[in-house]
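Table 4 source record.
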Amino acid sequence: MKKISSKANTNEIAEVCVGIIELSKKHSIVEDPYYSMTLDRLTSQTEDLIGKINSGTLTNELRECDELRDTDVKAIFYEVEAKCMRRADADQEKATEVLAILDRYGMKIVGSSYTNESTQVRAMLSDLKAPALADAIASIPDLSHLIGNLEASQAAFDIASSKSIEGKLERENTKPASVVAKELKETFNDEICTYLGAMALANPAKYKTLTGLMHVLIEESNKKVRDRLNAQKKKKAETVELN
């Protein structure tokens, strides 16, 4: 029976182990305490690894939320500045009032640290929503909508930031994904694979179907690993030729 490739990366190990677990559910082996216990451990390790992989997604989500927030900040500045550049009239004067508020912060806030930008954006939103400024805000078409967009993107950023902090604390207090992936691969290769291979010979009626399906699954996974490595080698060789 095939073992998981020694060159499989963290994501590839997680993917194939999810497949192994699903196969084990569809073709369950009853009354085998050792296999059940080891499969339970494999399942727990897989869930742990997927959680750690997903924590990286939280970082990307936070960055995407910040980029959307930056876009909303810039849109407000551009909209107000455009109205200030027209001929002097009552609406232009009102736009100047709004710009005076924005200038307290400056568009430079989009380049601040996450924490500092959040503080500045919240303060700016509070100033823009002051009752005394309501008439000036209303005189600029779409500005209320743009302010609403920024409120929404700041709220989304706050949620993503909270998730990111929780994920960071969890990562600091637990094993890194690379270690969990290594242990997960060892659980399958050294224990489950060896055990099922032997039992498929000793009791084919009970074990051979599941063992055969796992063999195919792992072979497909290992092929993906080989394809990835070959693609990397090809890209490296092309880069060397160009230089």
